[in-house]
Specification:
239 residues, alpha/beta, 6-stranded mixed β-sheet, globular, Enoyl-CoA_hydra/iso, lipid metabolism, EC 5.3.3.8
């Protein structure tokens, strides 16, 4: 499902396997456990890089698991369960006391797109992979914290309209032009090398993680309030 590796100051969180990394309760629980370990081991200079194996970064919630419940009502209940269980993953990433980088080497759709968007930096491939919100095509409504995250992270209302209400599939170079991704690179190895390089540059600053997390939350007050992330008073230690 996922692995966590520590390389000096870098934590590398990888969604493993050759499948599409659907976010079912087991995968969500594994992500939460990994993020808890990252937070507990954080120190000044720590950085998280999240990546994946295979064609997909993540293809969103596991709708097959939801439909396997049998009835429409039971499937809807399972989908609601995943929506609620995934909320703490977003909360953990937005409150993590370190810079975070999503190294997107494949497709990121729906909740998988949200997983990527919860990071501070998004790096994509130039040759493969799209960002895609499939809800409008599937006839699903948008969870409130998905909408709030989009408003917090993507400043252009026309970009939000095209992605959310037209179901636009956005490739790497277009994502940079639209202000969604930061940069693009050739191939899976190119994205990962760039992510590690950026992580090392950010880690070299040796920032105190707690103020870093509070600054992030202050940048995105709507989604932070919706996720129940409390504000903390930070003492000034370097003045």
């Amino acid at each position: 499902m996922c692995t966590l590796e520590k390389r000096r100051n870098l934590f590398i969180l990888t969604l493993t396997g050759d499948h599409d990394h659907r976010l079912n309760p087991s995968v969500i629980a594994a992500l939460l456990e990994a993020l808890s370990k990252v937070k507990s081991q954080a120190s000044p200079g720590s950085v998280l890089v999240t990546t994946s194996h295979g064609k997909f970064f993540s293809n969103g919630f596991d709708l097959s698991w939801a439909h396997a419940a049998g009835s429409v009502s039971a499937a809807a209940e399972r989908l609601h369960h995943m929506v609620q269980n995934f909320k703490p993953v977003i909360a953990e990433l937005l409150s993590l006391p370190m810079p975070t980088i999503a190294a997107i080497s494949g497709h990121a759709a729906a909740a998988g797109f949200m997983l990527a968007l919860s990071h501070d930096y998004l790096l994509m491939r130039s040759d493969r992979g799209v960002l895609y919100m499939s809800e409008v095509d599937l006839g699903l409504s948008l969870p409130d914290y998905f909408a709030a995250l989009f408003k917090s992270k993507i400043g252009s209302s026309s970009v939000r309209r095209d992605v959310l209400m037209r179901g636009m599939k956005v490739k790497g170079e277009a994502a940079v032009k639209m202000g969604i991704a930061d940069s693009v690179y050739d191939g899976e190895s190119g994205v990962m090398e760039a992510a590690v390089r950026l992580g090392e540059q950010l880690g070299a600053r040796k920032w105190n993680g707690e103020p870093y997390a509070e600054i992030r939350k202050s940048l995105y007050p709507e989604i932070s309030r919706l996720l129940g992330l409390p504000e903390k008073a930070i003492s000034i230690s370097k003045l």
